[in-house]
Structure formats: C-alpha cells, structure tokens
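User: Batch of two.

Assistant: Item 1 of 2:
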Amino acid sequence: MAPIAGVQFKYPSSVKDVDQHKFVKAFAAFLKKSGKAKVPEWVDIVKTSKAKELAPYDEDWFYIRCAAIARHMYIRSPIGTNTVRKIFGTRKRNGATPSHFCPSSGSVARKALQALESVKLVEKVPEGSGRRLTSQGRRDLDRIAAQLKPKKLITE
C-alpha cells in the first residue's frame, strides 16, 4: 500500500490488541463456518463441570470453548488438559457448607484440544506434555484479530 503524504496506517500486531470477548466470538464463528472441527455428539446434553447443574444454553458453546482455549494458547503455551480444567473451573456451591473450587470437565477439555488438533491449529509438544499452537494456528488467530480491530490513521 502506497503511503499517503503524512499518514501512516497502523495494523494490529496480535490477538492481545483486540477485545477478548469479541475475538472469541469471531474465532468461534470461524471454526463453525469452516466445518472442519470435529464436534462430539454429546455436546447438547453434557455439563461442563460437576459444579454445574445444567448444560450450557448456547448451542455453539463447544466452538466458543475451543476458541477460548486457542486464545489462551496464544498468550501462554504449552497447556494440557489439567490446565484447561483449571482455567474453566468454578466455585462449587455446597448449600449450607462452604463452597470450594471445582475444576471443569476433563472430557470436554480433552475433546476441545483434540478438535483444535484435527483442524491443524494445535500440535502436541514433543519434549513434554501439553499442546501448543502451530504456525498456521497463530496465523489464523492473527488474521481474525486483524479483521476485528479497525485501522487507525496516524498523522504526523
């Protein structure tokens, strides 16, 4: 792009530059539209944690969970199933007794990581446990972030 006299375009550099809620929604829509992510057949009846009473209301919750995991991997990786359980864990209410932290479902975490791996966005770490983003996955996340952030005009 040819520069305009005295005006410089600034493009976003990463996922960290955009609002996390908007990014996760946009990346979940991208995963759903691509149709490559393998969604388990039990997603409409499963609870996300033993601390929850009901299944999620949103029909696309699995795509949103995968997008949130991918965003977290962009910021800090490698992560494994136990890390994902800890991230999405919540407070379990025990009635009259005190509440305690309860990790989320391990099966949901494992299937979400496997779905991202089947789309070639995530790969297993060879030297240890956990998974990290591939270069293609990092590129896709940056591309979605670039679409979300408006271009700024910087005048000199």
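Item 2 of 2:
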Amino acid sequence: LAAFAANCGETALRHTVLVFTHCSLSHEELQSAVASEASAPASLRHWLQRLGGGAVGIDNVGPPRADAKSRLQATLERLLAANASLRYSNEALAEARARMAAAEEAETAAFQAAVAEWRRGTGPVSIEREEGVVTRPAAGRTED
C-alpha cells in the first residue's frame, strides 16, 4: 500500500477498498477481526484507517459467487456515496505521477549538486543516499 500511495497519491486512498479474497467471514466478523489488536497487525489497522472504503471480504471461490459480487458492489456504492460521487480519475493519477516525477527530479538534482560540491572540495564530505544511511570517509585517514 505504501508503493500504491507513493505512486498514486494520498487522494487515491480515499477511493480505495482493501479486498480480502477467499474470505468466508461475514462483513461484521471481518470488521471485528481487522480492528482487533489480537488478530490484525498495527500496520494493517493503520492503513485501513486511511482507506476510504475500508476492507471487504469476499469468497470468490465457492458457489455463491453472486453473494461476493453483491457484497463488493455494495461496498463500492458506499465508497462512491462517501466521496460525494467523485471518482478518482486518470487526470488525478497523471497529476500524482507528475508530482512524483518532480520530487524525483529535485532529489536527483540535489544529489548531483552535493556530489559536484564534494568533488570541488567545498561541500560536506558525507552523502546520505537513503534516510539514515550516511557515507563518510574514514576518520583520520591520510594519503601517504
């Protein structure tokens, strides 16, 4: 879900439903299970709070497939109503992609500037490629 949010933007989460397939639990049983600290990890509970459609469980393998279809359809209709019938559009996805590309460009430019400063000897001699991962030269090292 983190990759989905990063690629599609936070707005997409308001239009998202997490679907558990092969799920024989009733709607109430599933909601209870995903809300429980004993049966659902904290990360799942955190993501479900951010999703507009929450979670739905469907058993798409057993014979009553019509039940799975109607349960999913009802969830989608509730989600659409909750979003005032606004749909997440291709334009919104394009905007999210453009924001992500701009952020990546800015990060690349900042990294290239830091490397250029380092090569000139004017900048800091530490490079942080990933958050918390810092590369520095060995302390007290001299050239012979």
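The mean pLDDT is 80.
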